[in-house]
Structure formats: C-alpha cells, structure tokens
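Blinded run. Sample ID left blank on purpose so nobody reads anything into the name before looking at the predicted structure. Input follows.
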Amino acid sequence: MEFNNPTREEIGKLLRKAGNIAVVGLSDKSDRTSYMVAEAMQSRGYRIIPVNPQVQGEILGETVYATLADIPEPVDIVNVFRREEFCEDVARDAADIKANVLWLQLGIHSDEAVQIAAENGMTAVTNRCIKVEDSIVLRGAGRG
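Blinded prediction complete.
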C-alpha cells in the first residue's frame, strides 16, 4: 500500500482541531530540534505534553511523562521525534490512548507505524515538520 500524507488543507484542519500535542522524544536541551519545534508550537498556542523516560520534572513548563499511557488527559496529536525503528511501538501506544493523529517528524517514515495508525482510525503524517506545516497552512498563527 502506497502512503500519501494528508493534503495541506487536511493538515490545516488537523492542526486547528488539535488541543494537546504529546511530543515523544522531546529533549530538555534547548539546542535540540525537538525542543525548538515544541517551543515554537507552544508559543503558537498549542498545549505541549513532553514524553521522555530519560527526563523527570518539566520541559517547557509542562510535566514530563515517561510514556504516552502515563498522560492523564486526551491527546490529539502524537508528534514523534524518535528513529524509525521505534515508531511501530509508538504507533501502538498512540492507538492505545486513542490519539487522533500520529505525526512522524521530518526525516522519519515507518510503513508499519502508518499501518497501525490506519488500522486504529488515526491519521498519519510522516516525514513532515509540524512547525513548518503550521507555518504554511496557518501562517504561524497556531489554532488561533
């Protein structure tokens, strides 16, 4: 099965509806791409929920969770900053918490994760930067 990302219009709708974005692999180091992207999305009005078992406390003023299952509230988008070999497990975890969107960041694609997303009613976006897409489709205004 050939995978195609949602259209820019569809991505805009996903972002407008997003309340909580869980960022899997969010670093607590401000020079890392995951931190810079999450910080930009937070400044645009999105609620960022850090997921990183290596970090305790807070990142960007938000409580860090070790796993998606530990998050005590609904998650709309699971934004993944992990290597491809970890994406299948993240997709299963995202399905378990009934996330709406599985978003694999720029440079990341996993056919297995896409299939798991499809089988569980999630929209998959791969090899795209959520910050760049937000800038393009919503002109950086966030959910506005």
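Unblinding after everyone has recorded impressions. The chain has a mean pLDDT of 95.
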